[in-house]
TrEMBL record:
Descriptive protein name: Assimilatory nitrate reductase catalytic subunit
Iron recorded as keyword: yes
EC number: 1.7.-.-
GO molecular function: oxidoreductase activity
The organism's place on the tree of life at top rank: Bacteria
UniProt feature coiled coil, ranges: none
InterPro entries to which the protein is assigned, alphabetical: Asp_de-COase-like_dom_sf, MoPterin_dinucl-bd_dom, Mopterin_OxRdtase, Mopterin_OxRdtase_4Fe-4S_dom, Prok_molybdopt-oxidoreductase
Originating species: Paenibacillus plantiphilus
Annotated 4Fe-4S Mo/W bis-MGD-type domain residues: 12-69
Taxonomic lineage: Bacteria, Bacillati, Bacillota, Bacilli, Bacillales
Record key words, sorted: 4Fe-4S, Iron, Iron-sulfur, Metal-binding, Oxidoreductase
Tagged with keyword S-adenosyl-L-methionine: no
Cofactor(s) demanded: Mo-bis(molybdopterin guanine dinucleotide)
């Protein structure tokens, strides 16, 4: 372990913060102890989201912060940037001088857009805002995007199409216990947002029915009254059968549909051929189950539908999400206590991270960068002419395509590990090799940093003050608990300094994150994600304010659409008739199974943090592929064998677990590892035409037996 951290306020023996991992953003208390670490983590009793509870990740969230591999000094690559080449440590002045002069030289040779930024959804609102502003104002480049593209983009596109606004959950967590019928589709809450489980249990106590829809029986489906075992890619087919019943049996809320929506005819038409009888033949889901769920949800007094990445991370992800939204709209389960839709946001600041300009087509406040009024407003706040603002860039994965095309020559990565988390990652490695300059700002030498020319030490969640917006749309304040180790710098200071070196410091004279937040609030004023009624004082005093909050007098908006007015031009919500389409890759003789990927309870995303947390790592050292017994039998798997998975992009060997609980067509592999354990070597980089979300959840694969002796011989 590294040396014990130094409290930002040395007089305090109890510090407050929030867990760095999922979107619940549980409060934590850091308590000074006599132990080796000097501090321990306890659940905070003072934050309304998860009073008194933390999951394993939260309890162990100090683990990576104090890890001996924490970077403490800038370092540069001595020779070519290749994994394994030696580093040389450097002071900040030299590092920033050289990085800025290389940026300038690249921009002089190839134009401003040759330098790009790749951000992340763990960063604070202030950092998300600053990265967007830095790219447009200091670099004057159009190329910024972030890992949230891999996460919330399909849900965002769907909510914008249906409601005109994208707030992950339309209802606060406190509404869950009031719901009488809860549909959880492609969301493994028990492992991914564990402290949300008590809300579901409270609903169950009030006799709510819970339905899960997933190709696996998960810890979440153990809470369910009905589990629908769905082959990946079939959500729209399945939901069409529910809508078929609701429409044909006249179970929809006619008054609500008539007064507040458009597009009913579209749905009636689209679901015609999806009777429970037909759909049960295609999916193996019993028709009685389809009818029970459709009638149950429609007739329930209140109901909530939650979706997550299971159905969103697909080339049809926007359409699948729209179809689940249809369920709520058609049955009038919107805008009242215990009723609504939610796409369960993933990362710590997965919600705020998508509102303030890290996305290729966005400006702060969820404004669109090609909207002249938005450009005018934001340019004014930033003190530049609107014509100076670049236009729309490209999505996260497409940035690597632009490197291959030779248009992008440099990249700054801050808050992501895209070599592990991007689809078809061998292609990403090839792109990173071509860069003239790759700067990674991280706490660790990540897999992505293996290709970096410069590696700069960033701040951890305990070392940087800021605000975040949790999955409910609650904006709250996270204080700075510790000093950064060694020479590591708070991320926002690094951005300021780099802007200064690039001659654009005048636009970045912030002396605290609070100053950034105040500007962010002004920039968001009048936008969809309007924070303009917020301030640090107000947020701290009320333990969070829900956006939209357009004025100091406005109470904030825990529950969206309460007056049934939506953010589309006609004020109505839009129903969408969905004609289900196939995934980008379907199975065939050579690749007869479906590979789907996802998460484990004890690891987080690319694993950069949790693989450096001994207490979590020891629970899952390597990824284990899950297959159905019928597959094991077909490939003649014997005790001790492993399996080889081969897709059109590559081939890897995994340990294997045989489980009745997975759909017989499907193999599941978690994605928290790099190198030879990295499932993203195999995943498909097909993107959704609108959201540009990669198809992480469905590709065609071959499964073969790989016996131990064979492996030992190689
Ligand atoms: N422990 C842990 N918690 C996390 C994270 C983590 O890495 N680890 N990451 C955070 C982040 S950033 C995110 S985005 C969230 C993600 O949270 P989730 O979306 O809940 O997590 P996943 O495991 O990716 O996928 C959820 C489920 O989708 C199922 N699935 C696969 N294909 C399909 C399909 O076609 N249809 C349906 N209906 N289901 C399907 C999978 O079997 C899986 O159980 O979790 C957050 N919380
Ligand atoms: N196959 C497959 N791939 C997936 C998914 C899937 O379901 N299947 N899910 C996708 C999803 S939903 C997501 S969200 C992405 C996420 O994928 P990544 O973006 O790779 O996620 P992280 O591992 O959180 O990477 C964050 C990095 O930033 C660093 N970091 C964390 N906090 C800070 C900070 O405050 N400052 C600085 N400077 N650095 C920081 C961490 O050390 C880490 O290296 O993965 C996607 N990839
Ligand atoms: S539920 Fe999420 S925020 Fe809460 S402790 Fe676990 S990982 Fe952290
Ligand atoms: Mo995510």
């Amino acid at each position: 372990m590294a040396a014990a951290p130094i409290a930002a306020d040395s007089n305090q023996d109890r510090l407050h913060s929030h867990c760095c991992y999922c979107s619940m953003q549980c409060g934590i208390d850091l308590i000074r102890t006599e132990t080796e670490l000097g501090w321990e983590v306890k659940p905070s009793q003072n934050f309304p989201v998860a009073t008194g509870r933390l999951c394993q990740k939260g309890l162990n969230s100090l683990g990576h912060v104090l890890h001996p591999e924490r970077l403490q000094l800038p370092q540069r690559r001595i020779a070519a940037a290749r994994p394994g080449e030696a580093w040389q440590q450097s002071g900040w002045e030299d590092a920033l001088d050289e990085i800025s002069s290389r940026i300038t030289s690249i921009q002089q040779r190839y134009g401003n857009d040759a330098v790009s930024v790749f951000g992340g959804g763990s960063l604070t609102n202030e950092m998300s805002y600053l990265l967007g502003k830095f790219t447009r104002v200091a670099l004057r480049s159009k190329y910024i995007d972030y890992n949230g593209r891999y996460c919330m983009s399909s849900a965002a596109a769907a909510q914008i199409r249906a409601f005109g606004i994208d707030r992950g959950m339309n209802v606060p967590l406190d509404d869950i216990p009031m719901a009488k019928y809860i549909i959880l589709a492609g969301t493994n809450i028990a492992e991914c947002q564990p402290t949300m489980v008590p809300y579901l249990m409270a609903a169950k106590k009030q006799k709510a029915i819970i339905v899960t829809i997933d190709p696996r029986q998960t810890m979440t489906s153990k809470l369910a009254d009905i589990h629908v075992n769905l082959q990946p890619g079939f959500d729209s087919v399945f939901v069409n059968s529910l809508l078929h019943v609701i429409v044909n049996e006249g179970l929809y809320d006619k008054a609500f549909v008539e007064s507040y929506t458009t597009g009913f005819e579209e749905i009636a038409e689209a679901v015609q051929h999806f009777s429970p009888d037909t759909v049960s033949v295609y999916t193996g889901i019993p028709k009685e189950v389809i009818r029970t769920i459709a009638r149950g949800f429609a007739n329930a007094e209140t109901g909530i539908v939650l979706t997550a990445r299971g159905l969103e991370q697909q080339v049809n992800g926007v359409e699948h999400t729209l179809n689940y939204i249809n369920l709520c709209l058609l049955t009038g389960k919107m805008g009242k206590p215990g009723s609504g839709f939610g796409a369960v946001t993933g990362q710590a600041n997965g919600q705020g991270g998508r509102e303030h300009g890290q996305k290729a087509d966005q400006l702060p406040g969820y404004r669109m960068i090609d909207d002249p009024a938005a450009r005018q407003h934001v340019a004014e706040v930033w003190g530049i002419h609107p014509d100076e603002l670049p236009g729309k860039g490209v999505s996260a994965y497409e940035l690597f395509g632009k490197i291959h095309d030779g248009e992008i020559k440099a990249m700054i990565v801050l808050g992501s590990n895209p070599l592990v988390s991007s689809p078809n990652s061998a292609n990403v490695a090839e792109a990173l090799k071509k860069l003239e300059l790759l700067v990674v700002v991280d706490m660790f030498e990540t897999e992505t940093a293996g290709y970096a020319h410069w590696l700069l030490p960033g701040s951890s969640f305990l070392e940087a003050e800021g605000t975040l917006t949790n999955l409910e749309g609650r904006v709250f304040h996270r204080p700075r608990a510790f000093h950064t180790p060694g020479e590591a710098m708070e991320d926002y200071k690094l951005i300021r300094k780099l802007a200064e070196k690039l001659g654009r410091g005048a636009y970045f004279q912030y002396d605290s994150p609070e100053e950034v937040f105040d500007e962010l609030c002004r920039a968001s004023k009048g936008g969809k994600a309007d924070y303009s009624g917020m301030s640090y004082d107000r947020i701290k005093a009320s333990k969070g304010v829900f956006w939209p909050c357009p004025s100091e007098q406005h109470p904030g908006t825990p529950r969206m659409f309460e007056n049934n007015s939506y953010y589309l031009p006609d004020g109505r919500a839009k129903l969408h008739g969905i004609t289900p389409k196939k995934p980008a890759e379907t199975t065939d003789r050579d690749y007869p199974y479906i590979l789907t990927t996802g998460r484990l309870g004890n690891h987080y995303l690319s694993g950069a943090q949790t693989r450096r947390t001994p207490a979590l790592m020891k629970k899952a050292m390597v990824p284990v592929a899950e297959i159905h017994p019928s597959v094991a039998e077909r490939i003649k798997l014997r005790f001790g064998d492993r399996i080889r998975l081969t897709t059109r992009r590559g081939s890897l060997v995994f340990d294997v677990k045989i489980s009745q609980e997975i759909h017989p067509t499907t193999v599941f592999v978690p994605f928290h590892w790099g190198g030879e354990h990295s499932i993203n070597v195999l995943t498909n980089d097909a993107l959704h035409p609108i959201s540009r979300m990669p198809e992480f959840k469905v590709c065609a694969t071959r499964i073969e037996r790989e016996d131990r002796e064979e492996l030992a011989r190689h």
